[in-house]
Amino acid sequence: MTTATLERTLDVDFYHVQELLADEEQERAVRIREALEQHVTPIIEDHWERAEFPHQIKPIFPELGVYGPLWEESRLWENTALYRGWVALEFGRNDASVATFVGVHSGLAMNAIGMCGDAGQRAEWLPRMARGELIGAFGLTEPLHGSDTARGLETTARRVGGEWVLDGAKRWIGNATFADVVVIWARDVADDQVKGFIVETATSPGFTATKIERKQSLRVVQNADITLEGVRVPEERRLQLGNGFRDTARVLALTRAEVAWQAVGNAVGAYEAAVRYVTEREQFGRPLASFQLVQDLLARSLGNITASIAMCTRLSQLMDEGRPYDQQAALAKAFVTARGREVVGWCREALGGNGIQLDQGVARRFADAEALYTYEGTYQMNNLIVGRSITGKSAFV
Which cofactor does it need (predicted)? Predict the structure, then answer.
């Protein structure tokens, strides 16, 4: 381990988990951390308040090699799931909205093509997406169907000669207002199976994306309502290895692990902001950090964060070992986001009234924790995945 890496190790990594990464991985994680602090930290609060995405930061991400690291066609170097998890933590620590942007583009859209596309489709799309030439989105959730998407998906796909015709609507689709490519999941009217389609937004008449306004969480993420009215997609844009919702679920399980790491990062960011604040702020003639009740809040927060890092680390190790991890990813996502909600609440409490002000670095993370708790499977739905594993019985309906 280099001296620079030692100096940049996060204080919150109380059990020194980052040392499990290879030296090169640690150095790359540090470079990502520094780039985020240089380019994102100074501007993110203002963009969050205005609910605008800072498009000027997009060019830095291909240079950092964070897009599509799983796939031969798009990765710059060999890496581990543990490294990818730590990178997700670094993004979440800086800003959950920016982490979500990367997660949607790389984790959902690129992984959908990587896992469900054939070799030709991976070669055609993944390199350009890894270079940031094309930005992706992932269209699964619908206005009337979120948790029950597996059975309730209403968007339809009809085969007409060498094309497919898509009709329906999607909701809460991140990146969709400016994405170049959206992977749309639709139910084939012929065999009732869910299939994925690569839709190029600029050249697809009938495709409309409208920004969802008045959000109070992940405000920088440009979520959209999508309408699909007779959108025609050639057969070569259908994901050739995605032949049912089971394949869609494989993509979600992979990204669910990443969301868990992002949620840890969001809690870390709130905790670090709280530590800074109570160290500097004085009341009754002494720093807040010297009061027992404040230290109790910080210790409980650190305990939650440490437990979450440990769980996510073992999950990533299972992924690196090639072992099944769907149920473990569900448990991690549910547990970590619930513990994260506690952490951001305790951190806001430590700041008193100032905790609701954006400038202090906790209010944004307090609000964003709610979205992390809900998307990529709600707390309850992920627990039902775990419950099915425990009992062998499905309780989804």
Answer: FAD
